[in-house]
């Protein structure tokens, strides 16, 4: 079957493979090489060797076995949490929950099936595209305008057009009626910016712009056509909203 070409990732992304089993390493290498958006910069038979190799490398993606002598894949991931993309490949499905607690993008069980690996690569591609497009908040101008960086371009956003903000881990989605953007900033940090003082956090994952709130209930806030949930710990902030 012909492999898809991932044109949305702007340049090959550096990755490393760590697995103590030679056959499994070779299998992962052969699978990864089918995807031109990935570039294998290191292959290691142990976590210790990977740690040494990473002194000279800055990969964005990890393919990690879990059950290895010495430092396990999970322990290695703890040391490398600054690397954004991590896919665990293991013979032990019981590690799934713990893997996702380490911010794994996916969890593959050996022997790897090509169709399952394809799904993992699509998930990885989506993640990388989000990062590439992710808007870096640059600064606020005049209290009503911000510039964000999307790819290689700076885009001006008028704050009065923003309906609500949505937390996505280390990113925040900025939602306007016309478009959705992403900035590389947590929702909590974004709300500390002077430019976002007109927004009220109503959920761990959401903050709304007060002037667009049209309806309020104990569980939901209506912002234009969007229904935004109210978090259990944020019920008190409803008193700040209009029409309450």
Task: Offer a quick outline of the entry.
This protein is of the alpha/beta class and 244 residues long.
Describe this structure in words.
This protein has 244 residues and is α/β, with parallel strands linked by helices. It has 2 domains: 13-132, 3-Layer(aba) Sandwich (Rossmann fold); 138-240, OB fold (Dihydrolipoamide Acetyltransferase, E2P) (Beta Barrel). The protein contains 6 helices and 16 strands. The chain has helices at 22-32, 47-53, 73-79, 96-101, 114-133, 187-191, and strands spanning 13-18, 38-44, 61-64, 85-90, 106-109, 136-141, 145-150, 153-158, 162-168, 171-176, 180-183, 199-203, 206-209, 213-216, 220-223, 226-229. The strands form 4 sheets. Strands 2-1-3-4-5 form a 5-stranded parallel beta sheet, sandwiched between helices. A 5-stranded antiparallel beta sheet has the order 11-10-9-13-12. A 3-stranded antiparallel beta sheet has the order 6-7-8, with no helix packed on it. A hairpin with a 2-residue loop joins strand 9 and strand 10. The longest helix has 20 residues, at 114-133. The termini are far apart. Residues 1-7 and 135-142 have low confidence and may be disordered.
Write the layout of secondary structure elements.
Layout: E1 13-18, H1 22-32, E2 38-44, H2 47-53, E3 61-64, H3 73-79, E4 85-90, H4 96-101, E5 106-109, H5 114-133, E6 136-141, E7 145-150, E8 153-158, E9 162-168, E10 171-176, E11 180-183, H6 187-191, E12 199-203, E13 206-209, E14 213-216, E15 220-223, E16 226-229
């Amino acid at each position: 079957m012909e492999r898809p070409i991932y044109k949305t990732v702007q340049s090959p992304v550096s990755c490393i493979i760590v697995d103590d089993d030679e056959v499994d390493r070779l299998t992962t290498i052969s699978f990864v090489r089918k995807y031109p958006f990935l570039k294998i910069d290191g292959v290691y038979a142990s976590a210790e060797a990977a740690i040494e190799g990473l002194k000279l490398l800055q990969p964005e993606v990890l393919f990690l076995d879990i059950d290895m002598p010495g430092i396990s894949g999970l322990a290695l991931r703890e040391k490398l949490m600054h690397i954004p993309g991590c896919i665990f490949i293991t013979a032990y499905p019981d590690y799934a929950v713990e893997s996702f607690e380490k911010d794994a993008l996916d969890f593959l069980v050996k022997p790897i099936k090509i169709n399952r690996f394809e799904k993992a690569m699509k998930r990885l591609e989506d993640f990388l595209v989000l990062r590439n497009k992710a808007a870096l908040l640059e600064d606020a101008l005049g209290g009503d305008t911000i510039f964000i960086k999307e790819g290689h371009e700076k885009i001006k956003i008028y704050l009065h057009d923003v309906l609500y903000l949505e937390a996505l881990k280390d990113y925040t989605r900025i939602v306007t009626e016309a478009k959705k953007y992403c900035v590389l900033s947590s929702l909590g940090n974004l709300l500390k910016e002077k430019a976002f003082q007109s927004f009220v956090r109503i959920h761990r994952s959401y903050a709304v712009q007060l002037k667009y709130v049209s309806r309020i209930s104990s569980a939901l806030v209506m912002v234009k056509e969007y229904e935004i949930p109210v978090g259990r710990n944020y019920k008190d902030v409803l008193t700040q909203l209009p029409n309450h």
